[in-house]
Amino acid sequence: MKKFIFIIFVSIIFSNCAQKDFYVIEGYTQGTTYKIIYEGTFENLGKEVDSVLHNFDLSLSTYIPNSIISKINKNEVYSAVDKYFIDMYNEAERVNKLSDGAFDITIAPIVNAYGFGFTDKNNQIDSVLIDSLLQYVGMDKIKLENNKIQKKYPQVMLDPNALAQGQSVDVICDFLLSKGIKNYLVDIGGEVKVKGKKYKNLWLVAVDKPIDGNMEEGKDIQVKLFITDIALATSGDYRKFYVEDGKKYSHSINPKTGLPARQNILSVTIFAQSCITADAIATACMVSGFEKSLQILKENPELEAYFIYVDNHGKTKVFYTKGVEKYLK
């Protein structure tokens, strides 16, 4: 088995960032890299940024044994959840409803079984196992009450990774705003949010072509986007999957069937005011497929999207909502 775990779908293109009034912070968090570019008089906010990200991980990282979410997953005694957790849960519940269950943070037991989660892969994945795990999947199996999570079954586990990375981008942006910084770009693992401009120019980002084997960000670009005051997140199955016995297993799992989503979307980029929303909706679209995704967008006109998909004749096509046009110029 060979597992591809690269999940950076949006490549950032930078130029002239070394001038004295713009600063760059780079680091490693949540199993991926981050890069922050901001204008201001603070030459090094690196330690403060790392501290913010560390506190965020203590709430929502499934890879830290003593994090709030890890304690919930292990049914350990824990105190009330914090604001990070509450914000994540509320958004997860909202997107679950608007996507008709295509997005679901209780998918953890099945994601873990396939080897895409925070536990070891199950060696015997079959319909019997999947059916046995599906009884623990569904937002109706959990409830947030008095700042504590209540589970219907102890086997229920939560995986917030489909929106927590986007949420961490929002958290860092709030931190920068608290410092009075008005022009910045925050990129954590390819989830991006920008404000203002880079000097007099819009921020320039690029979406990679969704081709299996395209593992190097920025090497094979699909489209360049010129953006300001917006967040975006891209999801696709061309980097995070594994092949076993000649069969490709996607990391996008359908919560209703427990099977890897076999839809016609190769890549979708969602534009929203918050990165947590863009991240969650992008995942929901990958599970829902192109036609159902269009319905989600129709019912939520504040969102914009750029799709790369395969039509009924097997041809690769591009579709984007009208609001994306301004980002292409």
Describe the 3D structure.
Residues 1-19 and 239-249 have low confidence and may be disordered. The longest helix has 18 residues, at 161-178. Strands 3-4-7-8-11-14-15-16 form an eight-stranded antiparallel β-sheet. It is 29% helix and 27% strand. It has 329 residues and is of the alpha+beta class. It contains eight helices and 16 strands. Strand 5 and strand 6 form a beta hairpin. The protein has one domain (2-327): ApbE-like domains (T-fold, Roll).
Structural Rg: 19 Å
Oligomer: single chain
User: What's the CATH topology label?
Assistant: T-fold
Helix content: 25-40%
Instruction: Summarize the biggest pleated sheet.
Output: 8 strands, antiparallel
- Name the beta content range: 25-35%
What class, by secondary structure content? alpha+beta
Q: Write down how many β-strands occur, each being a DSSP E stretch of 2 or more residues.
A: 16
How large is the count of helical segments? 8
Query: H/E order of the elements?
Result: EEEEHHHHHEEHEEEEEEEEHHEE
User: Which CATH-level-2 architecture?
Assistant: Roll
- Our measurement of the CA-to-CA distance between the termini, rounded to an integer number of angstroms, reads 43 Å
Number of folding domains?
1
Question: What would the principal axes of the Cα set say about the shape?
Answer: globular
The CATH fourth-level homologous superfamily: ApbE-like domains
List the helices and strands and how they pair.
Elements (H helix, E strand, L loop, with lengths): L1 E4 L4 E3 L9 E8 L2 E8 L6 H15 L7 H6 L9 H16 L9 H7 L12 H8 L7 E4 L2 E4 L9 H18 L5 E5 L2 E5 L7 E6 L12 E7 L2 E7 L3 E5 L2 E4 L14 E8 L2 H14 L1 H10 L4 E7 L5 E5 L9
Antiparallel strand pairs: 1-12, 2-9, 3-4, 4-7, 5-6, 7-8, 8-11, 9-10, 11-14, 12-13, 14-15, 15-16
Helix pairs in contact: 1-6, 3-7, 6-7, 7-8
